TrEMBL record, chains A, B:
<dbReference type="InterPro" id="IPR036388">
    <property type="entry name" value="WH-like_DNA-bd_sf"/>
</dbReference>
<dbReference type="InterPro" id="IPR036390">
    <property type="entry name" value="WH_DNA-bd_sf"/>
</dbReference>
<dbReference type="GO" id="GO:0003677">
    <property type="term" value="F:DNA binding"/>
</dbReference>
<keyword id="KW-0805">Transcription regulation</keyword>
<keyword id="KW-0238">DNA-binding</keyword>
<dbReference type="Pfam" id="PF01638">
    <property type="entry name" value="HxlR"/>
</dbReference>
<protein>
    <submittedName>
        <fullName>Helix-turn-helix transcriptional regulator</fullName>
    </submittedName>
</protein>
<keyword id="KW-0804">Transcription</keyword>
<feature type="domain" description="HTH hxlR-type">
    <location>
        <begin position="11"/>
        <end position="108"/>
    </location>
</feature>
<dbReference type="InterPro" id="IPR002577">
    <property type="entry name" value="HTH_HxlR"/>
</dbReference>
Amino acid sequence: MKWDTLDEEPCSLSRTVAVVGDRWTLLILRECFLRVRRFEGFQSSLQITRHLLSERLKKLVRFGILRRVPYSEAPKRYEYILTQKGLDLYPIIMAMVHWGDTHMGDERGRPLLHQHKTCGKEFDPVMVCSECGEPLHAKQVHVHAGPGRKEAVG
Amino acid sequence: MKWDTLDEEPCSLSRTVAVVGDRWTLLILRECFLRVRRFEGFQSSLQITRHLLSERLKKLVRFGILRRVPYSEAPKRYEYILTQKGLDLYPIIMAMVHWGDTHMGDERGRPLLHQHKTCGKEFDPVMVCSECGEPLHAKQVHVHAGPGRKEAVG
DNA sequence: AGGCTATAGTTCTAAAATAGAACTGTCAAA
DNA sequence: TTTGACAGTTCTATTTTAGAACTATAGCCT
């Protein structure tokens, strides 16, 4: 597999996997959503090697998930802020958290609880159909080729 | 990082990442949801090395995502079927597909379209609050420690 | 019987990625 | 002038992955 061109495959999952499809990147993004912004913050909470952290942050900046924003002029220091593109990864992270809560839990209960500020309640994320609003299940979905696939396949 | 115990961390994201947090596993799951079930099927559509495919399938079986079901007695042959635990990964996959559609698209248009059999329409997946039904956004969610975190941290 | 094909793996070596630790450079405060 | 905080970079050893070849069972064709 040519991982370096995975983001150009005629498959939206592949393209997403090209960006967030590794363990460290997903854990870094978790920290971003928990308001971590700085190199040392990521490093100490994740115990990731500084080398890899540096690499992954660069990659996330390159793909437009994070912005590298100066917060000190002398010495020059930067922090990493989620862009809108990055914020839009939230459903992926939440879907993963929810699956972990449901299927990988232990007797200690949930590690984190999520409260929806809008309605005030503790909630679970639910994926629904944009058209009818019903919860989605794999077996109720029919997949067919769109223009991007037809053009790629010929 | 001790990846071998990542599935026991007091963090549901880590636990999920332990299972599906690598590129091949996510691509294999995509194929599962596209009804691929057999070793040769995965191998030829993904161009994954046979060695790694074998490893990843074993891991998915070990974690209860796939079941290895015989479909021929002589010679003994097996196919890999999503369990309920595996089917429940659907929101993760769909969230990734949707993000790719939204942020990684090109001029050729979407590779795949999804039709909701229940309502008959082509749809996008939307993540909503289980309590009030409103679409979720990161900034409207307050995270706090649950019992599993408190017990782990002390 | 002998050879071809299909399927589902296993085994081997080379290349790439990751881990772990040490090092660099800037500046502020003591 | 020394220490410490911060944001990285560089180095070697280990682990993972890629790529190709090999094994094994059995049906089908001649």
